[in-house]
UniProtKB/TrEMBL annotation:
Composition-biased stretches (Gly residues): 444-453
Domain of life where this protein originates: Bacteria
Molecular functions (GO terms): ATP hydrolysis activity
Name of this protein: CpaF family protein
PANTHER family in alphabetical order: TWITCHING MOTILITY PROTEIN PILT, TYPE II_IV SECRETION SYSTEM ATPASE
Annotated ranges, domain Bacterial type II secretion system protein E: 85-363
């Protein structure tokens, strides 16, 4: 007997109780014995057939063991076991939920999700840590990846484009730690970000002009600040007759463009062989006749190859980096160049950075979960052995009379310095500056106002 007494559980809370887990575990063992009797035949069943089989077996198990639960609760157990046998168990509903951005598992009974940038604890739970490992290994099996004591860390791309990171004991002290980053199947367009309040119309026009006129842009920000989403959106501004090569550690970008070649780095085997780094891919991408090279994120020695690409005819390239401010972004690039074994002087490195980059777009996630562009900064050159910058826009929120926080981007009244935007700069000046509601005409018939949305 699994339980005594006549305790009944409500439909909403039952699935989150320990008793539910106990009943499910016992029913699961019963199902395994029945599946063993069926042998190879079970492996050929469709999900619908498995679901029908589970419902019949669970109902019979509950009657046989006299488990005091009602019909609705029996259905909850059967549905959960169907997902266990034919899907991804407790993860299945979270992966199917379009509002979920991140799934974070800290041991079997601690599951958190991020929705709209805000983390909340989920009632979903696993039976034990072995249950987590069983589900994770089911995800990894078709990817050809292993997870055991010899390889206790795994970073992999899911078939739907999401990213999975797992670290297990002995490195994870309190049980398996699983992080799943989900990505939208339909990338956000520039107009979507505008409607969501990530930036205003003036910044949208500036970014459109910068991308179309082949300015090199680096998007800087913290974890889960929206760097990849912004990079995807900027790709909408790239003319359709250009060839883009993307290079990523784990493929996350989904550029809405007709001519994209996607490259993904490869981790080594358990013996360390077979590694193909981002740096290797960037070097190879330059032999693939790209008009633009887009690197998902620079975090190591590949920063030097990215700078070389930007300085050798591949203008209009873009990348992201982890940094808390535009100035910190430049310092981090210098630090990464040092890790890459850069042998030149500090002055020559800074000159190379200044000549390669045109704009730094700083994006951040606010305390309320909203993602906003915090700064648009232009690289203007060198002065006194320091990379010179000028901030064009700065995010400064304010509290309205009703006590509500409102977004506001302050234009510092400075026009872009780069010759690439000379035509646009002249138009802005003639029409009253970048804050003018009149949009500058697109170059060559392109631009945000004359191309696809």
């Amino acid at each position: 007997m699994i339980m005594t007494g006549s305790v009944q559980f409500g439909d909403e809370g039952f699935a989150g109780t320990q008793r539910f887990q106990e009943i499910k575990s016992a029913a699961y063992e019963h199902l395994l014995s029945r599946i063993e009797e069926l042998g190879a035949e079970f492996g050929r069943w469709s999900r619908e057939a498995i679901q029908e089989f589970v419902e019949i077996e669970v109902s019979g198990f509950v009657r046989q063991k006299r488990v005091p639960i009602n019909e609705s609760e029996v259905q909850q157990v059967a549905l959960s076991l169907t997902k266990e046998l034919a899907g991804l168990g407790p993860l299945e509903d979270l992966l199917a939920d379009a509002t979920v951005e991140d799934i974070l598992i800290n041991g079997y009974d601690n599951v958190f999700v991020s929705r709209r940038g805000v983390l909340t604890r989920e009632p979903v739970r696993f039976s034990d840590n072995q249950h987590i490992l069983r589900i994770v290994r089911r995800i990894l099996a078709p990817l050809g990846r292993r997870l055991d004591e010899s390889t206790p860390m795994v970073d992999a791309r899911l078939p739907d484009g999401g990213r999975l990171n797992v670290i297990i004991e002995p490195l994870a002290v309190d049980g398996p730690s699983v992080s799943i980053r989900k990505f939208r199947q339909d990338p956000l367009k520039p107009t979507d970000l505008l409607n969501l309040g990530s930036y205003n119309e003036e910044i949208c026009r500036l970014l459109d002009a910068a991308v179309h006129q082949r300015c090199n842009i680096i998007i800087s920000g913290g974890t889960s600040s929206g760097k990849t989403s912004l990079l995807n959106a900027l790709a909408f501004f790239i003319p359709e007759n250009e060839r883009i090569v993307t290079v990523e550690d784990t493929a996350e970008l989904s550029l809405n463009h007709p001519h994209v070649v996607r490259l993904e780095a490869r981790q080594g085997g358990y013996d360390g062989s077979g590694v193909v780094s981002i740096r290797d891919l960037i070097r190879n991408s330059l032999r693939m006749r790209p008009d633009r090279v887009v690197v998902g994120e620079v975090r190591g020695a590949e920063v030097m190859d990215m700078l070389q690409a930007m300085n050798t005819g591949h203008e209009g390239s873009m990348t992201t980096i982890h940094a808390n401010s535009p100035r910190e972004c430049l310092y981090r690039i210098e630090m990464l160049a040092g890790f890459a074994g850069y042998q030149g002087s500090e002055d020559s490195l800074r000159r190379q950075i200044a000549s390669a980059l045109d704009f730094i777009v700083q994006i951040g996630r606010l305390s309320n979960g909203r993602r906003r562009i915090l700064s648009v900064t232009e690289i203007t050159g060198m002065g006194d052995n320091v990379i010179s910058t000028q901030e064009l826009y700065r995010y400064e929120s304010f509290i309205d009379p009703d006590g509500q926080e409102q977004d506001h981007w302050k234009s510092l009244g400075i026009h872009p310095h780069t010759p690439k935007l000379a035509r646009f700069r002249d138009q802005w000046q003639n029409k009253g500056g970048p804050d003018s509601r009149q949009s500058p005409p697109p170059a060559d018939g392109g631009g945000f106002w004359g191309r696809r949305r």
